Amino acid sequence: MNLRQLRYVVATADHGTMTSAAQALYVAQPALSRAVRELERELGVELFARSGRGVVLTPVGERVVREARAALDAVDAIEGMSAARSDGRGAELRVATTPSLEPELTGRLLPRFAREQPAVRVRVVRSAGREEVAALLRAGRADLALTDLPVPGDLTAHPFEQREMVLVSPPALQVREPVPPAALDGMRLVLPARGGARRAEVDAVLRRAGARPVPVAESDERGAWLGWVRAGLGSLLWYRNQLEDTDGLAVRSFMPPITRLVGLVHAHRRLPPSARDFLAFAKDDGREPR
Questions:
Q1: Which PANTHER family has this protein been placed in (predicted)?
Q2: What is the pTM of this model?
Q3: Residue 156 backbone phi and psi in degrees, to 5
């Protein structure tokens, strides 16, 4: 028996279906179902019975969930003892991130947070990717992480932003709307510079679409991208919410949509005050129009 299994059982009881519980925890539904079945085998009891399209607790399941809630509350209280010694002033906050999201973290979120919480020392913990981010959180080497979702079920995820990648083109470009990703094959594109995190994101989208565009300009100077599009040099593939001043240009969605869910993630333990403050700040920031 482990805490992850207890959290999955409690979430299933709260949401009524394993699918809804998995979605709420941002884990794969098969992983959640497997963990619940493993706990049932270990205890030698049936915790849930099917009811229509969902599940309901058996009598013994109700007792297990009641004790599981108490156990999880006790764990949170124990982990909160160290956090209670500090009110966040002068505390250190360690935030891990992936290479592609580090510019967002250091260029937007952290400067704004520092203005609100100047006494908190923030340290960015760099990683090679999403898997290393998870390892840093599990090892206690980072308090929070900004990363792509979903993440493994032993981590807690807070969705931060749903991003849609769109095609920005000169109005004269004739293309079907919404744009099929295959239309990117052979298209003239303004692209981020080779070797960088932004280029890796775009290249991943192009690989999934099986498209080989024609690069007409390659630069990480985002301020120049739309100028090249306006000049008729080519089109741009980037996130809608990170584009400014697209007046006079055609902004088109893809079908199926190309989206990316970004979230703040932490281990299943009580957060220190500085991390809780940053989490609340980031959620508010994500709701602000940009």
A1: HTH-TYPE TRANSCRIPTIONAL REGULATOR CYNR, TRANSCRIPTIONAL DUAL REGULATOR HCAR-RELATED
A2: 0.61
A3: -100, 130
Three-state DSSP at 156 gives strand
Q: Do residues 66 and 87 lie in contact, with contact meaning Cβ atoms separated by under 8 Å?
A: no
CA distances from 162 to 23, 42, 93, 265 (A): 15, 39, 25, 15
Residues 115-174: tens digit of each pLDDT: 888 888 899 998 888 889 999 999 889 999 999 998 888 899 999 888 899 999 998 898
CATH number listed for the domain at residues 92-159+261-287: 3.40.190.10
Take residue 180 and report the two structure tokens written for it.
């099929």
Fold of 3-83: Arc Repressor Mutant, subunit A (1.10.10)
Q: How far apart are CA 172 and CA 243, in angstroms?
A: 20
Domains 3-83 and 162-260 share a fold: no
CA distances from 71 to 9, 61, 263, 284 (A): 13, 15, 27, 31
User: Cα(44)–Cα(59) distance, rounded to whole angstroms?
Assistant: 14
CATH class of 162-260: alpha beta
Gyration radius of the chain over CA positions: 23
Query: Residues 25, 268: contact at Cβ < 8 Å?
Result: no
Joined tokens for residue 202: 């775009």
- Which residue, 280, 248, 3, 250, is CA-closest to 144? 280
Longest dimension (CA), the chain: 69
Domain regions of the chain by residue span: 3-83, 92-159+261-287, 162-260
Tell me which amino acid residue 12 is: T
